[in-house]
TrEMBL record:
This is Catalase. PROSITE patterns: CATALASE_1, CATALASE_2, CATALASE_3. Residues 1-12 have a biased composition (Basic and acidic residues). Pfam families: Catalase (PF00199), Catalase-rel (PF06628), Catalase_C (PF18011). It comes from Paludisphaera borealis.
Length: 703
């Protein structure tokens, strides 16, 4: 493929990223054109290519010659295109944006990005699933990674979080075990991107510390509607340190301005088939349409005194601090406003490291965090091929930097001059020197104790917060947790493992354990698992932990799929589109043929999807708008009937016109509940949009 002529173009011009050393040589403009504006195709060495269609042969049907350097280079390069995928979080999607600071946080931190109101710091964010490989589907039931790289004026700060505020394990030494257990089983190499198998649940059932996290991953948090509608959490307790050296503990939160939203499991399974790229496409489309997603960064700040008296250990990553106890203080907003130009260069090569912190931020002794600080640097060397991965533009700081690390594979920042060590006594070009005033200072925490492999007693309560999470959910959400556990354990082939998991659930909530035991048809209820500490029954529900209680106030950023045919009522279509636009939502037309339909006024409307490729699972709500004739035609198409049947089963709001009758009947609609809205006028279209703000008509499930 011919290279585009852009500033970043490595094929045409030496790289201009960051370092003067690489700009030397040619002025950078190609001196050859193939006609018009198109540059001549060259080899990587810049040699113009005359024929890119045929290899060099002896005669028309003779052997290919080894001297064909263009053929050899082209195939050699292709052979080396792949780099190892991430050992976890392999499937991800990134975007650029900025963090805008609300006001000075100088009282708690000297971190430069938090000093001045309104200051913007560039960021790159990568969202991901954990277990699946690079080509797996987006809607796996899984934790989502939420990794943010802040390019601050004092270096890169990576906040490598998840969309769940707690973790499976308390000590990094168990990370390879939990990941081995969830990944495809080693003998058979499956299942892909799924926790519903024996190895995972075997490990979990033998690891009671995972129970709180299990409540989260069996909840709707693990099947988000989109990256845009999920929270992010730094998980660990970190420290903030101010200019006077005073330390404050902190937990980081990202709150989506768009509100929280998830899909239901039956929908997730179908989305994976209909559009395995559902999440990445959503982010790509939203940013492309100028509907930039936004999150507020919030801090939970607390001191040693709070940490001492809190019911749980703040160093235990399987615990959270309820927001009702320590409120989340909003300190800035992050806006994602730019797509990547090149997926590989940016999303694939970005290297997050928890060890990347800036002056004013510091670690805590959380043993999970301490282990992570080794793992991320180590894995980047394997993945990106050497110690110079910071020379890759997406990983390079955007502030001035100067150090004596040198050479290695693919070194791009090569200092000039003689000095490559310090101290040195050269006067001409001595290079950088350390600065006790400006440089990073570790918080001088006093540590003392015997060297030992031990888990603190304060980490021993594995069930109380799991229970607190469960009782904080709405009835609908509790039902989803029970169904998810039942589904997953039904895929487990070993009955003893199923029973062992239920024995833990008995320590969390009797009702939940009973539902799951019945769902599995366990012959006998197991004894509750031995618990190091009894489950506390007195923890109050924390409403902040429910998705449904924290839904959006508007339907903005959501999508309605309208099933249309020739003869669609032009007035209704226009009114619906207008009402959705006013709300900030989008209307997509789904038609029997992708070419489109002719509306009642003779106007032509192109379709976004042919019915087979646009099932209702891809939309937040649907509108059934065929003409009478169209409805009869659609009634013969299984995809059209499924469109409606699924929308009903997934508790979606459904707008319809009277002429849709024959289709609704064929789709098995027996009675129209309050989730259906008849569209007769523009007013009805507005009413439909207002109803959609609730996202789902949950009463259809419980009523
Ligand atoms: Fe991790 C990737 C988040 C525990 C070792 N992790 C990775 C990514 C995210 C997280 C979001 C993807 C980054 C990207 O998009 O490139 N990980 C977490 C969170 C954890 C956590 C929130 C617990 C609080 N991780 C964890 C432990 C270890 C690792 C305990 C090892 C001891 N994680 C890695 C890794 C990865 C990684 C092997 C794989 C690819 C990468 O780092 O760059 O180093």
């Amino acid at each position: 493929m011919a290279a585009k002529k852009t500033d970043d173009d490595h094929h045409l011009k030496p790289s201009t990223h960051g370092d003067a050393a690489v700009k030397t040589g040619a002025a950078g403009e190609t001196h050859q054109t193939a006609g018009g504006d198109r540059p001549v195709l060259t080899t990587q060495q810049g040699i113009p290519v005359a024929d890119d269609q045929n290899s060099l042969k002896v005669g028309a049907r003779g052997p290919t010659l080894l001297e064909d350097f263009h053929l050899r280079e082209k195939i050699f390069h292709f052979d080396h295109e792949r780099i190892p995928e991430r050992v976890v979080h392999a499937r991800g999607f990134g975007a650029h944006g900025y963090f805008e600071n609300y006001g000075s946080l100088a009282d708690v931190t000297r971190a430069d990005l938090f000093q001045r109101a309104g200051e913007k710091t560039p960021v790159f964010v990568r969202f991901s699933t954990v277990a699946g490989s690079k080509g797996s589907a987006d809607l796996a039931r899984d934790v989502r990674g939420f990794a943010v790289k802040f390019y601050t004026q004092q270096g890169n700060w990576d906040l490598v979080g998840n969309n769940i505020p707690v973790f499976f394990i308390q000590d990094a030494i168990k990370f390879p075990d939990v990941i081995h257990a969830v990944k495809p089983e080693p003998d058979r190499g499956f299942p892909q991107a799924q926790s519903a198998h024996d190895n995972f649940w075997d490990f979990i059932s033998l690891t009671p510390e995972s129970m709180h996290m299990i409540m989260w991953v069996m909840s709707d948090r693990a099947i988000p509607r989109s990256f845009r509608f999920m929270e992010g959490f730094g998980v660990h307790t970190f420290r903030l340190v101010n200019a006077d050296g005073k330390s404050t503990f902190v937990k980081f939160h990202w709150k989506p301005k768009q509100g929280l939203q998830s899909v239901v499991w039956n929908e997730a399974v179908k989305i994976n088939g209909a559009d395995p790229d559902f999440h990445r496409r959503d982010l790509w489309d939203a940013i492309g349409a100028g509907d930039f997603p936004e999150w507020e960064l919030g801090l939970q700040l607390f001191d040693e005194a709070f940490a001492e008296k809190f019911d749980f250990d703040v160093l235990d990553a399987t615990k959270l601090i309820p927001e009702e106890l320590v409120p989340v203080k909003p300190v800035g907003r992050m806006v994602l406003d730019r797509r990547v130009d090149n997926f590989f260069a940016e999303t694939e090569q970005v290297a997050f490291c928890t060890q990347n912190i800036v002056p004013g931020v510091d670690f805590s002794n959380d043993p999970l965090l301490q282990g992570r600080n080794f793992s991320y640097l180590d894995t980047q060397i394997k993945r990106l091929g050497g110690p110079n991965f910071t020379h890759i533009p997406i990983n390079a700081p955007k502030c001035p930097f100067a150090h004596f690390q040198q050479d290695g594979h693919m070194a791009m920042h090569n200092p000039k001059g003689r000095a490559n060590y310090e101290p040195n006594s050269w006067t001409a070009d001595p290079g950088p020197r350390e600065s006790p005033e400006k440089g990073f200072q570790s918080y001088p925490v006093q540590e003392d104790g015997p060297k030992q492999r031990i888990r603190s007693e304060t980490f021993a309560d594995h069930y109380s917060q799991a229970r607190q999470f469960y009782i904080s959910q709405t009835e609908v959400e509790q039902g989803h947790i029970a169904s998810a556990l039942t589904f997953e354990l039904s895929k487990v082939e070993t009955p003893a493992i199923r029973a062992r998991v239920v024995s833990h659930l008995l320590n969390i909530d009797d009702g939940l354990a009973t539902k799951v035991a019945e769902g599995l048809r366990l012959k006998a209820t197991p004894k509750p698992a031995d618990a190091a500490k009894p489950t506390r029954q007195d923890l109050k529900p924390s409403p902040a932990l429910s998705i449904i209680k924290n839904g959006p106030k508007s339907f903005a950023g959501r999508k309605v799929g309208a099933l249309v045919t020739d003869g669609v009522d032009a007035k209704i279509l226009a009114a619906l589109e207008k009402a959705l636009k006013a709300e900030g939502a989008i209307l997509k037309l789904v038609a029997p043929e992708v070419g489109g339909v002719e509306a009642s006024d003779g106007a032509w409307h192109e379709a976004a999807e042919k019915i087979d490729g646009g099932p209702s699972v891809l939309f937040d709500a649907v509108a059934i708008l065929p003409s009478t004739e169209g409805a009869s035609r659609l009634a013969t198409l299984p995809a059209a009937r499924d469109f409606i049947a699924d929308a009903i089963a997934h508790q979606k709001f459904i707008a319809y016109v009277e002429s849709a009758g024959p289709l609704l009947e064929k789709a098995g609609v027996a009675s129209l509940d309050d989730g259906f809205v008849a569209l007769k006028s523009a007013k009805d279209c507005n009413e439909f949009v207002v109803r959609c703000r609730k996202l789902r008509f949950w009463d259809r499930l419980t009523g």
